């Protein structure tokens, strides 16, 4: 991101897109690096794993 995407898009807004597990990873990135992206699109993010009664 820092070497390729950001230098080539300094005059544009940059968004994060994450789907399913990528949404979970993207959410963690957004928490760790606030303000890095102009916005985010999370499509069906896997924010919790439901295993039923299985630990």
From TrEMBL:
InterPro entries, alphabetized: AB_hydrolase_fold (IPR029058), Hydrolase_4 (IPR022742)
User: Which branch of life, at top level?
Assistant: Bacteria
Q: Which residues form the Serine aminopeptidase S33 domain?
A: 4-51
Q: What is this protein called?
A: Lysophospholipase L2
Tell me the Pfam families matching this sequence.
Hydrolase_4
Question: Lineage, please?
Answer: Bacteria, Bacillati, Bacillota, Clostridia, Eubacteriales
